[in-house]
Amino acid sequence: MLTKTEAIVLHAFKYGEARLIVDVFTRQTGRLSFITSLPKTAKGRLKKQYFQPLTLLEMEFDYRPRVQLQKIRDARLLSPYVSIPFEPTKLSISLFVAEFLYHALKGEQQNAPLFDYVRYSVEWLDGCTTTAANFHLVFLMHMSRFLGFYPNLEDWQEGCCFDLRAGEFCAVAPMHRDILSPPDASRLQLLMRMDYPTMHLFRMSHEDRRRLLDTAVLYYRLHLPDFPELKSLAVLQEMYQ
Fold this sequence. Notes:
Blueprint: E1 2-15, E2 19-26, E3 30-37, E4 56-62, E5 70-77, H1 88-104, H2 112-127, H3 135-147, E6 161-163, E7 168-170, E8 179-180, H4 182-192, H5 206-223, H6 231-239
Parallel strand pairs: 3-5
Antiparallel strand pairs: 1-2, 1-4, 2-3, 4-5, 6-7, 6-8
């Protein structure tokens, strides 16, 4: 079936001498993998730079549900970035987000609201003119809403713990180790109040930001099967030392 859809590139690697395997998240059909030939000249229709992580594309392909590797008919840039590739902080954040999405969206079916959230987020990051130091924290925790394990904030009170397994605040600590102490639980509920336009108003130390990022990644590892250690996490943590 001929399909035209918006897509976000998650990962690409070279296959043989002249081909790429590209993983994308599409608005129309969810997570898909494609195989495509590398252009032999600069005038080739499909440019290699189209398949950099988090690139936003408009794609056309003959969708075959039972085929493991789809074939791209045509692709063009949907919304070229103007700052992410050229600003080291934004680039580091974008590479972390791309690796995170590559693992978090494995097997993800068509989910237009989730796609729209990711697209809005990366376009906001690209256009941001204030500090983006908290962007990845806000992105991770608010994305959990679309995957079904958004933290329950209704029961938060000063002095509560947070049960990472159950995704809820509690007055009495559960009988397992995956909990946040009251100070860290308080930071978490503060994080959940942030959004992109206002996050620069919330001041956090490097240590607070590091602890929240570790917490967010652990939260996903507890709720998504086989979620691995992220290689880019150490790079991002180093950037905020």
